[in-house]
Amino acid sequence: MSTTRTRRALATVAGLTAGVTAATLVPSAAHAAPDPMPVPPEFAAAVERLRADIAKAKAEAATTTAAPPTCRGVYDYTPSNPTTWVPVPAISDQGGINCQLKLDDYDNAAVKVLQAALKECNGESALAVDADYGPQTHAAVKRVQERGGLPVDGVYDIDVKTRMEWPAYNRSNNAFVGCVDVPA
Fold first, then answer.
1. pLDDT digits (tens, 9 = 90+) for 160-182
2. Coil, helix or strand for 161?
3. Does pTM top 0.85 for this prediction?
């Protein structure tokens, strides 16, 4: 390689790097990516179907929301009457009531509170309050969903919570005072 060529190559590299800031490099039209290879006609229909499937999957992924976290604690909700309190399932004991419980959640204070509410205020008098979200609790939640006009899947969530009544207790002596609605 001649000295003149070496100098030109170095000058070109120096010119390219002189305008680079914060990892931003915009190639010139001479260095732009080539057009994609044309699709042979016999594969055109398959490629179009694949592109449509990819677009559909991207659209579905954009509209899908993650499931709420599992309820692990109990939040003491205060209704309009400040002398009462209502225990409701929550993400933790500090709050966060947009959570869910489902079949096979077990040894969980939130499940126990749900079971007590189903038993005391929602007509499930035979339900065991054992902190295990088993088949009986699953079936009881399905009945609440049916009565409330919700999709029936047996999963407790914030929609189920608003269709149920919850036991309220007196703050001074923890005595049961009746069943109340709890908003979302």
1. 999 999 999 999 999 999 999 99
2. helix
3. no
